[in-house]
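Lab manual, section 2.4: Encoding a predicted structure.

Procedure: take the sequence of the chain (642 residues), apply the prediction step described in section 2.3, and record the output as structure tokens. A sample record is shown.
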Amino acid sequence: MADPVSTPAVQDYPLLSKIHSPADLKKLSIHDLELVASECRKKIIELVSLNGGHFGSGLGVVELTVALHHVYNSPQDRIIWDVGHQAYVHKILTGRMSEMDTNRRYHGLAGFPKRSESDHDAFDTGHASTSISAAAGLAAARDLAGRKEKVIAIIGDGSMTGGMAFEAMNHLGDIKSDVLVILNDNQMAISPSTGGLKTHLVNITLNKTYNKLRKFVWDSISMMNNEFGDTAKTAVHRLEDGFKAAFTPGAFFEALGLRYFGPIDGHNMEQMVKALREMQSLPNPKLLHVVTTKGKGFKPAEDNQPKWHASSGGFDIETGKNIAVAGKPSPPKYQEVFGEALVELALKDKTITAITAAMPSGTSLDLFQNAIPSRFYDVGIAEQHAVTFAAGLAAGGFKPVCAIYSTFLQRAYDQLIHDVALQNLHVVFAIDRAGLVGEDGPTHHGAFDLSYLHSVPNLVIMAPGDEQELRDMLYTALYEVKGPVAIRYPRGSGNGTLLRKEFTPVPIGKGRLLRDGDSIALFAIGTMSIRASEVAARLEAEGLNPMVCDMRYLKPLDTDMIDTAASRCNCIVTIEENSIIGGLGSGVVDYLNRKHPGVRCISYGLPDAFVTHGSMEELYREVGLDAQTLSEKILDFYREKP
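Recorded output:
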């Protein structure tokens, strides 16, 4: 494990320092549980202020998590956290308090649940809307094996807007397994949730008549469970069902086969404990609707929930202000360059539309949302729908720009092929967070997009080497390409390239020569072209005269550039921040084998493995994509005898 930033002092956490497993919560009173919750909240604020990480969601589920571990028996009972960024308190209470200061650090705890990290983590999570499916599978395995453990799925932060959650509930209602789904309703994803389901949940939450009757029914159920027989219980349950049918808008969850309970205050420890004890005794699938406040207990996070969904660290606990870092201001982020360029173009072109899957601020499409709300669409955490919706817009004569993180676009691969590429529809995919993303780790690294896109017919694939190229490629994608096109770009800030006001088309399938040479050719794509230039400088110091090519396009590939390099250089190297299988290296090697079989070639990229979490510098060193390691390996390869 990484060295901890600090060691939690007993005087700072008098109760929490005594919690070594959930068993230690069993004997605590409601009052003591509330104190534990307060200490957990304090610990999360302290932790994220130093290390960064997901923030608002974890603060919102403090009481829920403490109550859950007080009532249920983890790890025997299986608890699954949807997305997983709301599981920091869960980690604190399951024996990892002393290691929490290593959270998201290289060789430290992961920022999401991991089965390899603890028996209390029932299922690895990182993407949204998977928990109910996983819970249904674990429950089916329990039933087949004749075991009796409970299975609980906690889903929230907009994850219920994902189609997979509905598919899972539909199936769960059919197989009737004993699963508790806890809907953590904070009306937020990263940004405010959208759609009909959000309206439905708000209607339930605000329906005073229903809530008064619900309290009466719950009190009656408790009394019946304690004092009366099955006939009386059945009568009260029928009364409950009648109230739900009369006052719950659509009785949606009941229609899917899950008994609905709630809504209850997720920050009221006594209510939470009582409700969870009731859930323990009820068979079959059920859903407990819990209303929470994202960022609860930290005023800046409550006041600006989208901003405080996560923090990069370095903020003052008292004020919430970022702690200034000495040095020059950072260049704009790639996502900001994209968002500003798209707005600039869309203000002049009324056919441009923008689509996000619950990530307006994460993709900087909030700029478009604010400037042109009538042509902006947030479809919720529903990437499959986002892509086919974009296909429909394109078929209707508009130019949809679908901005999705690389790791989330994986979820819509069939739609990309079947609904967009097969029809050769002009949809622009703005693929954010391409390549490594640092501390969020393997669930969020954009390690595969060049590979999974490479084999799709009709698709043009671009990757800018700097901020201006991103602007120019967006213009090219909208006005020079007739079919589907993907632009992939990384997380974080650019390299400080000065931006021009005008847009210049990037010739389709043509790279740019960054440095001419005649000894060895370095072919890179995207921001790895900057790394290739660094490597070339090191190789020049060793007496070589390297050629450096920014390929810009994976598809169509610049074969003229490859022909030129093959005629001048006796070996070629490809460098990409993508899986070594199926990306730029595969394309160049395949072409060389067919056209220039005598030219030596070696490829460097991400390994055929899931890359861990850590800082970008640490991860580049681990995978061998830092300038020093690349230079040493390339020099060794060049000096090898054929």
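Check your result against the sample. Confidence is low (pLDDT under 50) at residues 1-8.
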